[in-house]
Design goal:
Structural class: alpha/beta
Number of helices: 3
Oligomer: single chain
Strand content: 25-35%
Low-confidence stretches: none
Helix content: 10-25%
Radius of gyration: 28 Å
Distance between the termini: 98 Å
Length: 355
């Protein structure tokens, strides 16, 4: 693919710092900027990688329209409004997605007679589909997936291998769930008894996953005790995330890996949770909240659009002050010890004088 064709696809402006550089150079691959070679195209969206512009061997680099770069070596830039989005577009062009599942229904699949499969639905090997299950048009249910009784799967959903969806749960259209994830397992509900043992609380609700949600590998989304655990439209969850019973996650909220959300917590729309964030139960998190990695949230957040981190969590500016003060503790401790010695010395002198 010629560079001029790439530029046209991205609506980019070609900016060349090399004598003889031309828009007819062949672009053959997409590569990381620090590893790129001739024939490769790369990008810079994060300032951390800007240093590689001067040394990269890529034939072209996608950058922002306003990025200032040196011209000490040969360089061809494609200037665009959004380098990251443009890079994704060209990446998809050079690496079209593989078909995750062959068409048709594998002969080893076990499908209840009362189940309904939509047009062009694909069913992999050793899939088990229970009674009254409804699989939408164009959905792909990959190998070893188990769909319990009364499950609904929307149009063009994609379930990768080794997923279990328990009875009654509902998945919307274009939902993507990666391998090893469990939808609708029992919530962690146990009532303490007088003898020190625990009585299991029946978990009678379901999980509802709305349209355009993507859930990573090895996640667990627990069914509600009563009612619904609901993941709303456009939510994106990374791998290894726990979503407890009766949780509600608002539209277009995203979470990095290993986050844990305790029961009955409600998270607003367009929130961002960093890796290993933990939320205790029965909280409400306002729309647009951002929470830094490894933060612990023990109280509701009412003001929308704020950024927090720390454990326990604090607003960003306050958290910075706390972190800065912690580094001063050793020096302060030394000062206190020195003052204590001086006080003891003064007390000893006063005692001698009084005698």
């Amino acid at each position: 693919m010629k560079l001029r064709e790439v530029a046209a696809m991205l609506n980019a402006e070609i900016e060349a710092y090399t004598v003889g550089s031309n828009a007819d150079v062949d672009i053959q691959r997409v590569a990381k900027i620090e590893e790129a070679r001739g024939g490769d195209i790369s990008f810079v969206a994060n300032p951390k990688y800007q240093k590689y512009i001067e040394t990269t061997q890529a034939s072209a680099v996608i950058v922002a329209k306003d990025l200032k770069v040196g011209v000490s070596q040969r360089l061809t830039l494609l200037r665009v409004k959004d380098p990251y989005f443009s890079f994704l577009k060209i990446l998809q062009h050079f690496n079209p997605p593989l078909d995750p599942l062959p068409p048709g229904i594998h002969p080893t699949a076990v499908i209840a007679k009362s189940a309904t499969l939509g047009a062009n639905a694909r069913i992999g090997a050793h899939v088990v589909i229970g009674e009254r299950v409804n699989v939408g048009d164009g959905a792909m249910i990959s190998h070893n997936v188990v769909l319990g009784d009364d499950v609904k799967v929307g149009e063009n959903a994609l379930l990768y291998p080794n997923i279990t969806v328990y009875n009654g749960c509902r998945l919307g259209s274009r939902v993507i769930i990666h391998s090893g994830t469990t939808i609708g397992s029992d919530g962690f509900g146990f009532a303490p008894k007088d003898d020190g043992t625990y009585e299991k609380i029946p978990q009678l609700g379901i999980v509802v996953i709305e349209d355009d949600v993507e859930i990573g590998a090895n996640c667990a989304v627990d069914r509600a005790t009563l009612g619904e655990t609901r993941i709303k439209r456009g939510v994106k969850l990374d791998n290894l995330i726990q979503v407890a019973h009766n949780v509600v996650i608002g539209e277009n909220t995203v979470s990095a890996a290993q986050a844990g959300i305790s029961g009955s917590t409600k998270i607003g729309k367009n929130c961002m949770l960093g890796g290993q964030v933990g939320l205790t139960g029965h909280l409400e998190i306002a729309d647009g909240t951002k929470i830094g990695a490894q933060s612990g949230i023990h109280h509701s957040i009412e003001k929308p659009g704020m950024t927090y981190f720390g454990s326990p969590v604090h607003p960003q500016r306050e958290a910075f002050r706390i972190q800065a003060s912690i580094t001063q503790v050793p020096d302060l401790l030394n000062t206190v010890r020195e003052l204590q010695k001086r006080v003891e010395q003064l007390e000893a002198q006063l005692k001698q004088k009084s005698e």
